[in-house]
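ARCHIVE RECORD
Type: protein–small molecule complex
Small molecule: glycyl-adenosine-5'-phosphate
Source of inputs: curated submission
Record status: active
Notes field left blank by submitter.
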Amino acid sequence: MSTESKNNTALMEKIVSLCKRRGFIYQSSEIYGGCGGIWDYGPLGAELKRNLREAWWKAMTREREDILGLDAGILMNPAIWKASGHVETFADLMRECSLTNKRVRADHVDPQSGTVLKYSGAQSPTGWRWDRTITALTKSGEHIESFRKRIRALIAQNAGESAGKPEEIELLNEEKIDVVTDSVDFHPETGGMLGEARPFNLMLKTYLGPTATEADVTYLRPETAQAIFAQFKNVFDSSRVKVPFGICQIGKAFRNEVTPKNFTFRSREFEQMELEFFIKPDEAVQIISGEVATWHEGADLTEPKPNWGWDMWHRYWVQERTRFYEGIGLGNVLEYYWQTNDDLAHYARACVDILCEFPFGTEELEGIAARSDFDLSQHQKHSTKSQEVFDEELKTAAAQLSDDQKEALIQKRLAAEAAKTKGSPMPEADVRAWFERLFKGNYVPHVIEPSAGLDRMALAVIAKAFDESEKVDDKGKKETITVLRFHPRIAPIKVGVFPLLKNKPELVAKAREVYALLKKHMNCFYDETASIGRRYARQDEAGTPFGITIDFETLGEKGPELLDTVTLRHRDGGEQERIKITDLLGKLLPLVS
Ligand code: GAP
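STRUCTURE (tokenized, with ligand):
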């Protein structure tokens, strides 16, 4: 979801170039010309991603009592993707160019104006013939001869060697058929007439097993979420948890994106970090607590409460995720887009996109959806395995209700079903059957889903950290200085360790001692080459927040009080402090973890 188009191409180019130069991100298979929409992370990128992954995992599992982790396979039984709706509906509408068969997303065709020319076919002296009507649009200001040349080249490209040389292709029976203004019926690159919009599934197909028949088809997962739903019952039964609780997972996801773009922002292979937080249906909360808390501006979301329904839980997770982003230095670049009723899927109650400012505009970083009991119910239906939980507290509370109170709850739900503007209302018999199970303590949990992309997060922190300035050196020469101002928690390298001089064995030995002490606890970089200023600059460009210099004071040559002290330099602000080696860990660890 894009709210604004602050398109800073030059900045983006600088970021892409720095990423390659400093080993953050490389184009996949670059020596073979690349592989569209796939990116590789170099040494610094791999560390950055690992730190983001760990920060998310820590915030979601280690620091909480109510969320458990999962690590499921990328390939799963394809029945999962039928149940989830991905086989049927995970598609973009595409239109195909009649000239080149190139596809374009139906909603990505910009209006074009020009003259439409038609040919009854084409032939070449090789004996090749194309008995297909060719309809194409001239580009604005394009001379007819250039147009013909371009169409011949496109046909030759499409037909392969049999068509011979492009310039020898004869276009048959040229006819000017129309002059159009703002038409969206021609391919934006080729000008060829576009066919009808048809759905194009984004899942990447593969075969499981050596026979590779249609019966072996499965898909590389397009999201990590479905494995969580498919393993919900196993986790629930094996972990002694009670609803509300969550299951989270980090892992690769694959989508055959039609137009991968904006560097790693929209890739074909990427990593997701998803939480499925399972909650009681509001009716169960009502029965147990006597009320369902309603959200209002200023509502207290600090600690979950038993009377929270989906709305409060959803708001809570928006707040929690915002806190997470603040903790990795993205606090002041976030925006929120609350999806409207028109945007929402029929089963979704609410969905908010957390947006972030990128050089190419403000775009989605994470989606947080209240998805009702849709996913587990779908798996229950398709697998015929119950996904219900039993809630003793609910059964006890329901037993205290009078028949009138029970009927009032049923009527309230029937009214809500009747008022639905999307999807079909649940028939009364089904509603009554659902309440019958609920009053006995059984229900399929509802879910709140915060779903983030790790690659987008990495790109967002790189873009936010990028800081470029001009400096004039001692000789009056202008120099561009680049600093990546990563938050210390996520910086790939936490500390650079530098002996002042590399030809003083005592300095080098001490520096290696300091390096050995720190590297057990954090990622450090030892560097003894070039001037100390140059070494600081290198680490600034890599985003390293701290630098430690071992100098003659460290060796006690400037007085015993400075023996075994080092200079600690802070990247942001450049301030330097003298600190005992024995105090280093105590000082740095809380800042970087
Ligand atoms: N289970 C819900 C789900 O997958 P989504 O909005 O399609 O929802 C969630 O994806 C997040 O995954 C997005 O907010 C984004 O951060 C990331 N993501 C999705 N498609 C991506 C792509 N092609 N490249 C990189 N990240 C992507």
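CURATOR ANNOTATION: DSSP finds 17 helices and 29 strands in the chain.
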